[in-house]
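Running co-folding for adenosine-5'-triphosphate.
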Amino acid sequence: MSGASPTFDLRGVSKIYQTRGRHGPSVTALNDISFTVNEGDSTAIVGESGSGKSTLSRLLLALEAPTSGSVRYRDEVISGRDERQLRDLRRRVQIVFQVPMSSLDPRMKVHDLLAEPLRALKIEVDEGERVRELLQSVEMPTSAANRYAHQFSGGQRQRIAIARALGPSPEVLIADEPVSALDVSVRAQILNLLTGLVCDYHLTLVFISHDMAVVRHLCDSIVVLYRGNLVETGRTEELFASPREDYTKELLAAAPQIRAARVARTRKGREGEPRSA
Ligand SMILES: Nc1ncnc2c1ncn2[C@@H]1O[C@H](COP(=O)(O)OP(=O)(O)OP(=O)(O)O)[C@@H](O)[C@H]1O
Ligand SMILES: [Mg+2]
């Protein structure tokens, strides 16, 4: 591990949702979570449904503030800041969601879907050129720019969503279950694309997943959540070799090994090919 300051540093972070008003029942989505995300690492956030993974991603994006504790991005506390103070962060940290259609407006052409974040963030570039570049980086034909997202398959839409996230040249990419809504046959392709992009653009990846087999192949370190609590965190190989907690052992035991083998094979096959810039 380098001595540089971490990309994200969470200290004692809790998030409590008050449902049905101030005196209604509350849900503790995250409970006293502390961990760091190191620059250039791919960090997995794993845990069953409802364990707080997406809540955590919203705190990293500063879309929500923690109820208590602090979230730092590099040396700055981002929790509880106003939009003006967060402008820089809005460019540096991007997200890709599970269901690409929910983040892609069906009335917009792909060109506008990719250009929109650039305009919103006032990034001065030749739009046409940047859109072509982005489409190439996700291995889509540049002619896709003139079509609508609904004219593409699920896997292609996820490529468009990834291109859109890459537009502002982020430092961090958060991927919240980026392949779980996709057909099994295209999952490995999208995962390989992500792996290549992380490498080419030196991205710090926060990878939210249920799938321990995929996490094992993609991520350098793992954060295990269970019902809002941090169960265990560590380097991937150490955690797989000697999980300390029973919950982690259960997760690992449930990992589908066959899929892992397939991702590894596809990835290996691709390594010999030159990647488009
Ligand atoms: N805005 C909200 N208001 C109330 N409760 C919420 C809100 N967002 C999340 N929760 C609750 O917080 C807990 C954690 O939810 P979260 O969506 O972070 O889980 P998750 O790990 O992403 O689950 P999944 O794997 O199903 O996506 C759940 O109990 C959820 O119902
Ligand atoms: Mg979620």
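Result summary
Residues 53-54, 176 surround magnesium ion (ligand 2) (CB under 6 Å).
The mean pLDDT is 89.
Job closed.
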